[in-house]
Amino acid sequence: MTTPFGQSTVLGYPRIGPDRELKRAVEAYWAGGIDAAELHDRAARLRAAVWRTLRDAGLASVPSNTFSFYDHVLDTAVAVDAVPDRFRRLGLSELDTYFAMARGTAAEPALELTKWFATNYHYLVPEIGPDTAFTARPDKPLREYTEAAALGITTRPVLVGPATFLLLAKPAPDAPEGFRPVDRLDDLVDAYADILGALADAGVPWVQLDEPAYVADRDAAEIDALRAAYDRIGALHHRPRLFVASYFGELGDALPALLATPVEAVGLDLVAGPGNLARLAAAGPIPGRTVVAGLVDGHNVWRTDLRAAAATGAALTSLADHVSVATSCSLLHVPVDLAAEPDLDPDLRARLAFARQKVDEVVALGRALRDGVGTLPAPVPPAPAAWRDDTVRARLADLGDEHTRRAPYAERAAAQRARLGLPPLPTTTIGSFPQTDELRRARAAHRAGRLDDAGYADRMRAEIAHVVAVQERLGLDVLVHGEPERNDMVQYFGEQLGGFAATVNGWVQSYGSRCVRPPVIHGDVTRPAPMTVDWSRYAQSLTGRPVKGMLTGPVTILAWSFIRTDQPLADTADQVALALRDEIRDLEAAGIRIVQVDEPALRELLPLRAADQPAYLNWAVTAFRLATSGVADATQIHTHLCYSEFGEVLPAIDALDADVTSIEASRSKMEILDDLRAAGYGRGVGPGVYDIHSPRVPDQAEITEALCRAVAAVPADRLWVNPDCGLKTRGYAEIEPALRHLVAAAAQIRATLG
Ligand SMILES: CN1c2c(nc(N)[nH]c2=O)NC[C@@H]1CNc1ccc(C(=O)N[C@@H](CCC(=O)N[C@@H](CCC(=O)N[C@@H](CCC(=O)O)C(=O)O)C(=O)O)C(=O)O)cc1
Ligand SMILES: N[C@@H](CCS)C(=O)O
Ligand SMILES: [Zn+2]
């Protein structure tokens, strides 16, 4: 007797807890405030609460092993024992070895952290070499299954699938040239077979293996590898039934490949990948299989058009024996519960669904597929007319090419040189200075009404004065105001722009214990008042040196917000760009001579399929240029990029036409400079000479060495000296010596220039 896949499920659920309990627990453990037993206890309570919530909501199939102390890709690495020796050698407990891989130690840098597909979640990159010994360590999925079973809830353990795991991994540092982790798939499948055997022993009926890597372009060999892996896993005599989930797009040729294997259920994202439906139809009948239809968007916060989703579900029932309703991806990417936002505008609230509400939608759709659409709740009301702004629309309609073009760089550079009078190799920072507990407490007091507006502004001005004084004392050439007033580089703008709504508790995990509160873009974007001008003007009033105005660019604002789905993203980007254009002109009018527009998410939003990339890059570049091209030649525009490998988008970085680009470079040993030059980039560049992600303070010699490499790659008159990124996550005890060394290293190289 086989267990059918239930009528409704979610691919994963937020693990941070309704009040970020996970953050508080792990941070308390790291700080020595609670012991491992207490941490495990709190984690078990969080897991139990999620399972009960999902069961009580009426979900037919409940996932487990979606909890993680830090990251689910790291959990999968541990489940197959892919722990690099450098961490084993530390001789720590299992839990502390895990956290050492996630966070590093004084002796060992952490695994690399990188973007999880096109989301704002970051995973830890497994390091796989030819000798990595894969061994099944199924303890965690087994423990979670058993824990839930003790509550009377039968769950479906979730693991990253073996092919995606290796495609996301990077070669271990000592791997020979040309080694590819995916070449180890056969060995890894052996370990998965053992894990599945152990789960089957425990009575697990279904397991979910996530293979989202196959919604990106994959070559024939990679698709063959997928088929071979699931042929082998499918042929195992002793295993749970297999649900292979895909999400974030269309499976393309991987879909028929997967359907040719014995897996019992395939998950398709029908929100980000509507073409999956036609591809499934083209694949022909799939007797005995379940299609798990991702009909409820797990990556955005809008309520689902349940009738349209039910129609898609009904279309699927003619293609597959069993259709189950699910979220399009894990609900990890949305806040936990709309109930925690009682003060949101009712018109907006009526249109939103967070994780908890999306579970209800899935259950309702599952019921509708069985009992008909008459059972569905009332449709989402239309958007209020007040969310439309005809002035913004008319302004955008009137724009021409001249609004995205500046004078030739040589002319601008000459005007800026004359106006700014900077030395060669000017030193600067990326914007933020340490966000101290005291600053956060002041903001919390202001939010709670314990500190009034004037008191808060005084506190921020005092911080700005401090940051300016520190920079003058250190001898930096171009100063910043330090961004003390910003809770976050996107949320801060979301709180001030029209068409955006900020949440008070809408936290989403970004990495490990770090969370963000993405604003919701619901209407046309306006700028009711200047957003940064007073702070920048005040900072500039304290010093004769130039203070950079500091803004977040249109792409990054969209990437780290919940976006509108009722108009093309390009249109929303232009609206944000127009607001920034007005802000930049106001900064210029206030005497700000340099404005930096950060675009760290430029690479993040790049579509997964190459065919979709040119259109994206075109609108992304246009929006940046619309924002930044309204200024005089003598006003210098900087941009800043970090958190990504920028190889694929270097021509777009050049096309941004910024006067100066600061870019993360210290970990790649300045190689980015050659790549930029090869892409034709010929304007100012500030390769990061100091890795701010690490608490290590670089000495002068290593910064000098980095600068020597930079001077060899870029003419000195175009080179800037700066850290890799903002300093907000560091403390003054680290950044003061680091910046002192940076300034001294720049002086040392300047002296050699003659
Ligand atoms: C650069 N990155 C960012 C991404 N996305 C963004 N939206 N913003 C980013 O900066 N994506 C890519 C990377 C990801 N990196 C990070 C790095 C750090 C964090 C982080 O530290 N997050 C904080 C929350 C930041 C914040 O909103 N701070 C608020 C304080 C909110 C708060 O917790 N308040 C407390 C009370 C505080 C007190 O009393 O001391 C409370 O409400 O309980 C602020 O400064 O006002 C985090 O803690 O996780 C995120 C992504
Ligand atoms: N100006 C921002 C950029 C971060 S990517 C900062 O300095 O924090
Ligand atoms: Zn940065």
TrEMBL record:
Zn(2+) binds at residues 640, 642, 664, 725. The keyword Zinc applies. GO terms for molecular function: 5-methyltetrahydropteroyltriglutamate-homocysteine S-methyltransferase activity; zinc ion binding. It is an enzyme of class 2 (transferase). Zn(2+) 1 binds at residues 640, 642, 664, 725. Catalyzes the transfer of a methyl group from 5-methyltetrahydrofolate to homocysteine resulting in methionine formation. InterPro entries: Cbl-indep_Met_Synth_N, Cobalamin-indep_Met_synthase, Met_Synth_C/arc, UROD/MetE-like_sf. L-methionine binds at residues 430-432, 483, 598. HAMAP family: Meth_synth (MF_00172). Its cofactor is Zn(2+). Belongs to the vitamin-B12 independent methionine synthase family. The active site is at 693 (proton donor). It holds the Pfam family Meth_synt_1. Residues 425-747 form the Cobalamin-independent methionine synthase MetE C-terminal/archaeal domain. This is 5-methyltetrahydropteroyltriglutamate--homocysteine methyltransferase. One of its GO terms (biological process) is methylation. It comes from the Bacteria. SUPFAM superfamilies: UROD/MetE-like (SSF51726). L-homocysteine binds at residues 430-432, 483, 598. Its EC number is 2.1.1.14. The keyword Transferase applies. It catalyses: 5-methyltetrahydropteroyltri-L-glutamate + L-homocysteine = tetrahydropteroyltri-L-glutamate + L-methionine. It comes from Polymorphospora rubra.
